[in-house]
Amino acid sequence: MCSGLRHAAPSTLKGRVGPKPEFLEHVAHRRAALRAQLAAFVPRTAAITLEIGSGHGHFLAHYAAEFPQSLCVGVDMISDRIRRSKRKAERAKLANCHFIQAEARELIDSLPAGVTFNELWVLFPDPWPKKRHHKNRLLQSSFFELIARRAGEGARLYFRTDHDEYFRAVAALIPGLQTWRIDPAAQWPLEPVTVFQARAPSHHSLVAIRTSHPARPAKTTAPVPSPPAAPKSSA
Fold first, then answer.
1. To 5 degrees, how large is the angle CA 170–CA 216–CA 131?
2. How far apart are CA 79 and CA 49, in angstroms?
3. Measured between alpha carbons, how far is 83 from 225 in angstroms, rounded to an integer?
4. How confident is the model over 118-131, as a mean pLDDT?
5. Annotated catalytic residue within 76, 80, 109, 126
6. How far is residue 78's CA from residue 95's CA, in Å, rounded to a whole number?
7. Number of other CB atoms surrounding residue 174 within 10 Å
8. pLDDT score of 20
């Protein structure tokens, strides 16, 4: 999965550092286009299953076939992966399975206000192994708070990685959050072996459960710039 952000560099204007006006306009247009795409297949009120970093669609297409009552959405930033994923869903006639090219945070912000999460899947995300790049990892406290605002009590996040240190960091992070807890007894509803998982010599998994604690409110702002994402295959 690729979870890095693709954004222009900030500008300095009268001593203040911030995004250029044309960048903010570009972000506004991109989000408007994203909302229009989502409106084509996501009702204004719905509970969805979201896979972040859906790769070539192997897992989510399998999931959608096994659980036809679930509205499944996969997001990835690489256009070729999205094309391949859509072909899988079309060939299998999966009317409940959709893929969209976007950055995960922007997609979540662009969903209709009435959309919530039943399940979220994050399988083998980019671990950003160098310490100076850890700030680019997807699973951080700010991200857990972001998804908590759309996840009702009991919603689940399934996380799997073959990177030992990343797994330990996430496992240590969650107990400090009020909005999520780890459930060591939780069962995975589906266990297909994806391409990336088949290549991994070993992996670690956990399930986080949404608690009843209210999520912190947060303003949606233009994303800040970050380095290009390191190349990484997806599940």
1. 30
2. 21
3. 27
4. 96
5. 126
6. 22
7. 19
8. 86
134: its two tokens = 């850890």
Question: What is the predicted pLDDT for the residue at 11?
Answer: 44
How far apart CA 107 and CA 218 sit, in angstroms, is 16
pLDDT the model gives residue 163: 95
Q: Compute the distance between CA of residue 127 and CA of residue 133 in angstroms, rounded to an integer.
A: 9
Q: In this structure, is residue 120 part of a structural domain?
A: yes
CA 94 to chain centre: 21
Q: Which residues of 117-147 are buried (b: 16+ CB within 10 A; e: fewer)?
A: bbbbbbbbbbbbeeeebeebbbbeeebbbbb
Q: Which residue range(s) make up the domain with 201?
A: 17-210
The reply to whether 164 falls in a domain is yes
pTM: 0.81
| pLDDT tens per residue, range 66-109 | 999 999 999 999 999 999 999 999 999 999 999 999 999 999 99
Decide if 127 is inside a domain. Answer: yes
CATH code for the domain of 55:
3.40.50.150
Verify whether residue 126 is a known catalytic residue.
yes
Question: How far is Cα of residue 19 from the mean position of the Cα atoms in its chain?
Answer: 24
Q: What is the mean pLDDT of the chain?
A: 86
Please provide the size of the chain in residues: 235
Q: Identify whether 11 is part of a domain.
A: no
Residues 234, 1: contact at Cβ < 8 Å?
yes
pLDDT digits (tens, 9 = 90+) for 185-196: 999 988 766 666
